[in-house]
Every structure is written in C-alpha cells, then in structure tokens.
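seq as requested:
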Amino acid sequence: SMESSKIELGYKHSLLIFGTAALLLFLATNTGIEILYNATGIRKIVLWFINGGLFVFLPLFLLSIMFAKQQVGSSDRKQIMSFLRLKPLTGKEVAATIAGLIAVFVLSGILAIVLPRIIPNFTPQPPFLTLNPLAPGEYWILLCWLPLFFLNILGEELFWRGLLMPLQENAMGKNTWWFHALCWMIFHIPFGINMILMLLPIFFIQSFLVWKFKNTWIGIIIHGVYNGVGFLAVAFGLV
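struct tokens:
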C-alpha cells in the first residue's frame, strides 16, 4: 500500500507532537472557555463545543487530510482513505471491535465504582466543565454537540491513529501500541487526572486493537460509541 514507509516518528517527536496538541487543548479549554465565558456568559458546555471543535479537532482533521493528500500525491478519495487506513472491516475486526467495546465499558464501570472509594470527592468531569443533566428546555445543546462529536472523533482518529500511528510503527515496531496509548494519555492532561484514570481502559485497549489490525475504523467506532454513550448518559442524567 501507499503508506508512508520512509517517515519515522520516534519517541521524542511523538511526545513533542502529542504534547503540543495537549497545550493547544489546554489553551482552548481551561483558558479559552474562562475568557469567553466571562466575556459572553454563554454556557460553558457550548463554549467547549466551539473551542474544542474549532481550535483543536478541526485542525487535526484538516491536517490529516492535507498530509494524506500530499503523501498520496492526489485528491483521490479512495487513495486518501487507504493511506489513512480506512479500509472495510473484516469479520474478525468487527468481532475484535465489539469485544474491545465491551472490555472498555466493563473496565470503565469498575473504575467508576472503585475510584470514588480511593479518591475523596472524586469526579471524572474536567476542571473547565461541570455538566449537569439537561433540563427539557436545554435539548438544543445536543444539536450543538453533534458537530463537535464528529470533529472530535474524526479529528483524533484520523490524526492519531490514521496518520501518526503508522509513522510510529516505522520507528517503534512492537512497542508502538503502548507508547501510543501513553501519548494519547498526555493529550488528555487538560481534562484532569481523574478523567485520565477513568479513560485508562480505552487508551490502552483501543490503541492495541488499532495497532494490531491496522484499521482506523476500529478506533473510530470504539471512540465514537464510548464518547457518545458517555456524553448522552450524563446529558440525560443516567450516571
């Protein structure tokens, strides 16, 4: 395939890229949301959608497409998708994705029970955002959430898994999956240590499965279902 066989992304450069993205995420969330909230009084959750979407996830998405185009040397959609490892799922990959999702949800559920017993006043919510269940008049917020949701999942999956993971494989071989998981963890530092602890299962299980099967769709599905279910559960007061 047309994969970027020559380019290697080693440990130092991986940390640099994920660390820079984490800084960008910190500025867009912790800093940016405060500034905009004080200026406009718009609900913080909506400001998160705007800031996260425009300043973090949209750039990741566009960079993935631009780099893929440049590497493939054309704007052919099939070639770009193939470069980003967006290929049809085999039966085995579907089974692995479902098993991965079940494992992520079960382990996250266990952590949700265990962590509050170890950490006083435990809340997985990020410091810049406390989300209460939506009141009936607030369901419009779900419409604002949808564009962020798609940009978040596609931006992260195409950039981290579709673009960077193959380059890391060129440098790290079998160590790719766990180091990739650590890098992805670093990106989430702006969400606070509690949320990182809650997300440990998805960081490692998803990174492993995408690395093992070399298929970005696995990441898109696991990340999408996990995020979607998590957000909706909070929005409707189920957790």
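Helices lie at 11-40, 44-72, 77-83, 91-118, 140-172, 176-187, 193-213, 216-235.
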